[in-house]
Amino acid sequence: MDRKDGLTKYVLRGEGAGSVFVIDEKTGNIHITKPLDREEKDEYRLIATATDRQTERALEPSSQFIIRVQDINDNPPVFAGGPYSATVPEMANIGTSIIQVTATDADDPTYGNSARLVYTLVQGQQYFSGPCVRRYPTWTVSPRTSSWWSCRPRTWGATWGVCPGPPPSRCG
Question: Domain Cadherin, which positions (predicted)?
Answer without folding.
Answer: 9-79, 80-157
